């Protein structure tokens, strides 16, 4: 663990020990490298300016230099954050950069850049990888905002088009690739909201054979899956969800090759640099203090989700959860997942109609206090939403049907507050009331 030395009295342009480039400080891979917790523990720890165990917050928007010539060298790209030289916090900020190191360690990539939101991470990386006239192949089951970006905004504003496919049909994926035009294969490791698990290694093989870049959204499965270690080129996150854990921060991340991150920060052509979805240093500090607890939180989210899904299925509900053996992707997820972290913290209950879905959520929140009706996920309390009329509302009826989103699909992000049995009793009471009202749909 290295404590970054501060420049004092001069710019010391020829020193290599100010802040060595990340590649020089990366530890060699060990047999436990695929475990995200081990990777995070091996990542560089940034101490505070006065020796504090936590890093200092660099709240400055702009940075001074000691010699006039240094400014020219900064803007020419000759000097940069790898040598502890900074220009302006829209470009690089030391505190945000440190969070990026943690995200890179978490996902097993060379580098990462943290942004102001998950959507800004997704849109920026796709705009960097694609030009006007290019084409994307994407999963037909995506978060509604991403689907709208690809369906409506990109064709209008950027002349970038997308073909949506069933990821489970690999022949269809191959057929959708247009030679010379398709640049990216985009999908979610575990889809929102239907919990379809992507065969990341096989999809990467198909894409790479055609020269495509594979971009994977891993928001639903941090710790559980490591797409970059399974072959993906870029991993994006909405840090607002599990990684934050507090439902109080909006943030995103792009994790991938250092060459890509650097290109996205280029002063003339960089999507992040020029679009400016900058993360505040104070937000980065808060998030960096939460990442060390992510493994513990994910294990509990996933444990409770599996217990509730198993019990709900025994009661006769139509439960969708990849941890259940009858889920079509259970064996696949088991083969790809990092061991000991579970199968994800989200489960779905298909109530078939929006009326039944709303009745269930109303009882769970307002009568038995099991959770809250709210979008998002990864909070310590359970959050519930009817996906078709909320987070997937950007999709039309045909698109929802193709994606497998039922009008009564209730997505539950299972929390870990209270005891497991306490929360189960609350859930069971709500289900009993539904049964009394003849609104409980069973298989």
From TrEMBL:
<keyword id="KW-0663">Pyridoxal phosphate</keyword>
<dbReference type="InterPro" id="IPR000277">
    <property type="entry name" value="Cys/Met-Metab_PyrdxlP-dep_enz"/>
</dbReference>
<dbReference type="GO" id="GO:0005737">
    <property type="term" value="C:cytoplasm"/>
</dbReference>
<feature type="compositionally biased region" description="Basic and acidic residues">
    <location>
        <begin position="8"/>
        <end position="18"/>
    </location>
</feature>
<dbReference type="GO" id="GO:0030170">
    <property type="term" value="F:pyridoxal phosphate binding"/>
</dbReference>
<dbReference type="InterPro" id="IPR015422">
    <property type="entry name" value="PyrdxlP-dep_Trfase_small"/>
</dbReference>
<feature type="modified residue" description="N6-(pyridoxal phosphate)lysine">
    <location>
        <position position="241"/>
    </location>
</feature>
<dbReference type="InterPro" id="IPR015421">
    <property type="entry name" value="PyrdxlP-dep_Trfase_major"/>
</dbReference>
<dbReference type="InterPro" id="IPR015424">
    <property type="entry name" value="PyrdxlP-dep_Trfase"/>
</dbReference>
<comment type="similarity">
    <text>Belongs to the trans-sulfuration enzymes family.</text>
</comment>
<protein>
    <recommendedName>
        <fullName>Methionine gamma-lyase</fullName>
    </recommendedName>
</protein>
<feature type="region of interest" description="Disordered">
    <location>
        <begin position="1"/>
        <end position="30"/>
    </location>
</feature>
<dbReference type="GO" id="GO:0016846">
    <property type="term" value="F:carbon-sulfur lyase activity"/>
</dbReference>
<dbReference type="GO" id="GO:0019346">
    <property type="term" value="P:transsulfuration"/>
</dbReference>
<dbReference type="Pfam" id="PF01053">
    <property type="entry name" value="Cys_Met_Meta_PP"/>
</dbReference>
